[in-house]
Amino acid sequence: MKKKILVSRLYPKAGIRLLEKEDFALTLWEKERPMTQTELIEQAKTHHALLCTLTDRIDQHFLKHCRHLEIISQFAVGYDNIDIEKATSFGIPVGFTPDAMSEATADIAFGLMIAVARKMFFLHKTIIKGQWGHFNPTGNLGLELKNKTLGIFGLGRIGVKMAQRCKNAYDMDIIYHNRTRNKAAEKMLNATYVKFDDLLLQSDVLSVHCALTSATKEIFNGPVFKKMKSSAIFINTARGPIHHEKDLAQAILKGDIWGTGLDVTNPEPMQPDNPLLTMENVCILPHVGSGTIEARDQMSVLAAMNIIKFYKNDNVPHIVNPEVLKP
Questions:
Q1: Quick one: which H or E segment has residue 28?
Q2: Which residues of 71-81 are buried (b: 16+ CB within 10 A; e: fewer)?
Q3: Which residues contact 287 (CB under 8 A, 6 or more apart)?
Q4: Is the pTM of this model over 0.90?
Q5: Which domains does the chain have, with CATH numbers?
Q6: Tally of CB atoms within 10 A around 222
Q7: Residues 72-131: pLDDT tens digits?
Q8: In what order do the strands lie in the sheet with 282-284?
């Protein structure tokens, strides 16, 4: 019997073609909107494997009804939408797509940093509104980034790429805070490990690249922003719930920090009347960190290969919970 694979979204063809070449029966969800969880459960009940993404809630409720699944492959580097502990208890391997989007996401973080420092989004809007007036020698001034200190919260694959860009372009000093030291990155970047409070106190730009966990949820909040430099730029391209959004807006209004660049918001999608969108020193994008042709194609390929390799040789090349695989 052919293995039935449920594909939850319109993913790039690069990976779908690989699945089509194998002896699988594919069910492709071809609507632009995501399935509701109820629809996803009903579809998954009749399939052996699921290719899903961050917008799919693979929680206890889902897994209770779909514990028969043989593998779940996630089209993303993150997997906080999946109850990994419950999936593991049911013996379901969970694949993901690390590093495919590192370059693309680091580009977004780097671009947001520059855009915030020079108020680019706000100034662009003044042109649209017909507010481009006379030259003002003291108006619309931004910040220079040369020789500043970049603080990385989560110096992993994407954090390293961001740090490389900042060091090469602006000769920035690199400091970071992780759960564990990244000795290889320290050597490569001449980066310095610091305590969390020191990261806040010393960073001119603080860029978030950690996973969303119970420990990092809304870790960047009002009291934390107060510890940062009043000239600091806060960048988050990881997960929106890592920052407390109302506290972030207040921190900028009160001058606790200079501004922020966000590719992720809390919640998502951001409402169009959010006060952050009207602030001079704020630049926000609609969660497009992995949004390049190259990155999305590679993510699709890795997600597909996790499924293909699992059924060919009981191996998942990129797996979150390797303990479920047979030794």
A1: strand 24-28
A2: bbbbbbbbbeb
A3: 240, 263, 264, 265, 268
A4: yes
A5: 3-99+293-324 (3.40.50.720), 102-284 (3.40.50.720)
A6: 14
A7: 999 999 999 999 999 999 999 999 999 999 999 999 999 999 999 999 999 999 999 999
A8: 192-193, 173-177, 149-153, 205-208, 233-236, 259-262, 282-284
How far is 247 from 52, CA to CA, in rounded Å? 32
Residue with tokens 């993901």: 96
First CA to last CA distance, the chain: 26
CA 46 from chain centre, in angstroms, equals 31
Question: Which amino acids are annotated catalytic?
Answer: 239, 268, 287
User: Contact, 104 vs 292, CB < 8 A?
Assistant: yes
∠ CA(49), CA(70), CA(79), 5° rounding?
70
List, as one string, the DSSP characters of 48-111: SEEEE-TTS-BSHHHHHH-TT-SEEEESSS--TTB-HHHHHHTT--EE--TTTTHHHHHHHHHH
CA 212 – CA 81 distance, rounded (Å) = 10
CA 325/CA 210 separation, integer angstroms: 26
How many other C-beta atoms can be found within 10 angstroms of the C-beta atom of residue 234?
Answer: 29
d(CA 50, CA 27): 10
Name the residue with tokens 């290969």. 305
